[in-house]
Specification:
The protein has eleven helices and 27 strands. The strands form six sheets. A six-stranded antiparallel β-sheet has the order 2-3-25-26-1-27, with helices on one face. Strands 14, 15, 16, 19, 20 and 21 form a six-stranded antiparallel β-sheet that branches. A five-stranded antiparallel β-sheet has the order 6-4-24-11-10. The longest helix has 30 residues. It is elongated. 26% of the residues are buried.
């Protein structure tokens, strides 16, 4: 092995190092090879991993990774929100769909990989915050650095003379700098330290700006709080949707919801058993543009142990009941019909919600009649409800107004097996036509029923009759319960406050030295002839207000002279300090 050592290089420790056990000459190993390095070991590797995980760059990386991991939740349908859309996606993508399902892309926020990123970010933030908090608390208890001997290299300097004694000047400066903030009465403006330097000279050191680090820590603590609050809300929340027809009621029980989702830690038995009845619904539309203006649902709320109360639910004005917010999500018409089978028996009677398809409430719906008698085939009726019908050509109708001025049901008729006994969930707003046959006219065109409120029409092929009884309205209610929403708001506001403090709080140090005037410097007794005041300021980074702040302090200190005689030199800017440190010990 060839080594190179420049001539004239004498290391006082080279001979001593060569004699250490396990090393040859020139610090090499005992066999002349490279020196033996100590093994890192399992504990060392764990320490290294912990330091990497709790570093700020890894925390930022995990935060960005969490945002990226949330993207599939907006791209792919999610099973808790729309299981029917997930089923359709799996059917349309027979190859990629099952793999995406195994990887959790249809329930992103409950997947293993999303939870792992979430927990790692939580651990990273906590591990990053705790050591910084300990250091910050120690810095808050420390005294400000003493004034240097010379102020000539500081970016802001000033001075003046006062007839008062040095100690009085120093006490006046301390009182000024320790003045409390109006908005933060518990926090002084500056942390101040005053001491006697001897020979009658008094020095004041003041420091502010630790609010910047406090805001930084508050921001990160608020992020941790947000993570905890969101996770808690996801575990304890529930959300359900229910359609309530005018004149009917709704009970806060899982069986009464059309769709219901809940967190893993929420028990449906904990639902508060209140009831809600829709008494009336009012909709207002612009008479010219037919645009919606206002929707109001008048309901009767009955909570446990209380008398029924009349309440209203409007758009963006939810009702609070049983710890949940009840939102008005949608509305429409639910024609009440009665269907009799061929034997004259009532096979179906009730209101069927039709879903609006446009601004004039052209609504589509399905009426399924499974309970027929005498071996007759089941009946399915598919069609549209037109609130204000107008025939624009023979056999073709359209709605011209969302209000029910002249309602009309236009239905086609199917018969056969509805498929309700297969055990496979069905969409109540769609008809499974795979085992059904559509009724046709003699010329092969589909049979179309047109019926208005109060009318009865015959079903084709002697299948019975259909009566359009009346046209009540329905509302779609969205009930949400999330106990963590208040905490999410609190932590979000704290995060903004901490971020603002960390960005805009100035970091400054001010020093002031009060020295006896030369005429009185050598006297041991007698009144002082005056005080010479020198001051300097230093900021961390660019601070355009540093000179103004120093001038303000000097003006306040010098302006309180006992006889009003004083002289002040304004603060000046001498440029940034080369190494960021004052020129002196």
């Amino acid at each position: 092995m060839v080594t190179y050592r420049p001539e004239g290089l004498d290391d006082a420790f080279s001979d001593d190092r060569a004699q250490r056990p396990g090393r040859g000459t020139d610090g090499a190993g005992p066999d002349g090879g490279p020196p033996a390095l100590p093994a890192l070991g399992a504990v060392g590797w764990l320490r290294w991993v912990w330091r990497q995980l709790t570093s700020m760059r890894v925390a930022l990386l995990l935060l960005m990774l969490l945002a990226v991991a949330a993207v599939p939740g907006t791209v792919f349908p999610q099973r808790p929100q729309d299981p029917a859309a997930v089923a359709d996606y799996l059917e349309e993508h027979a190859t990629a769909g099952p793999w995406l399902d195994r990887l959790g892309f249809f329930d992103v926020y409950a997947s293993v990989w999303f939870s792992a990123i979430y927990l790692l970010l939580f651990v990273s933030l906590v591990g990053c915050i705790l050591p910084r908090t300990r250091v910050h608390l120690g810095a808050l208890r420390a005294r400000p650095p003493r004034p240097p001997r010379r102020f000539g290299r500081f970016p802001a300097q000033g001075g003046g003379t006062s007839p008062d004694a040095p100690r009085e000047v120093a006490e006046r400066a301390v009182a000024l700098l320790r003045r409390r903030w109006r908005l933060l009465p518990l926090a002084p403006a500056y942390r101040v330290d005053v001491h006697d330097e001897g020979d009658g000279t008094w020095a004041v050191a003041a420091e502010r700006g630790y609010l910047r680090e406090t805001g930084n820590l508050l921001f990160h603590l608020a992020l941790v709080g947000l993570l905890v609050a969101v996770a808690t809300g996801q575990m304890l929340h529930y959300r359900g949707q229910a359609i309530v027809v005018q004149g009917r009621g709704f009970a806060n029980a899982q069986v009464d919801y059309d769709t219901f989702e809940r967190g893993t830690a929420f028990d449906p038995a904990d639902l508060v058993p209140f009831t809600l009845r829709l008494d009336e619904f009012e909709a207002e539309f612009d008479p010219e543009t037919l645009q919606s203006r206002d929707f109001t649902a008048f309901v009767t709320l009955t909570e446990p142990g209380q008398e029924p109360t009349a309440e209203t639910i409007r758009v963006n004005h939810p009702l609070t009941a049983g710890g949940a917010k009840v939102y008005l999500q949608g509305n429409g018409y639910a024609p009440r019909v009665t269907v009799r089978d061929a034997a004259g028996e009532v096979a179906f009677a009730g209101a069927v919600p039709f879903l609006p398809q446009d601004d004039v409430y052209t609504s589509r719906g399905v009426i399924k009649v499974p309970d027929v008698s005498g071996g007759q085939g089941q009946i399915g009726l598919v069609g549209f409800l037109l609130p204000t019908a107008q025939e624009w050509m023979p056999g073709f109708w359209q709605s011209v107004d969302p209000q029910p001025a002249d309602p009309l049901l236009v239905l086609s008729v199917w018969s056969g097996n509805l498929g309700l006994d297969t055990g496979v969930p069905q969409n109540v707003y769609q008809l499974d036509e795979s085992r059904m046959e559509q009724a046709l006219e003699a010329d092969g065109t589909p049979v179309t029923l047109e019926v208005r409120p109060g009318e009865t029409v015959e079903l084709p092929d002697g299948q019975g009759t259909l009566t359009f009884e009346e046209l009540p309205r329905f509302v779609a209610l969205d009930l949400r319960h999330d106990p963590a929403l208040t905490w999410v708001l609190v932590f979000a506001l704290l995060a903004f406050a901490g971020l603002g403090a960390s960005l805009f709080a100035p970091r400054r140090r001010l020093w002031l030295r009060a020295t006896p005037a030369p005429a009185a410097a050598g006297r041991d007794q007698g009144p002082a002839a005056g005080t010479v005041i020198t001051a300097a300021g230093l900021a961390r980074g660019d601070d355009v207000g540093l000179v103004t702040e120093l001038d303000r302090v000097l003006a306040a200190v010098l302006g309180d002279g006992s006889d009003g005689a004083h002289e002040r030199a304004a603060g000046t800017s001498a440029g940034p300090v080369a190494d960021g440190r004052p020129g002196g010990p």
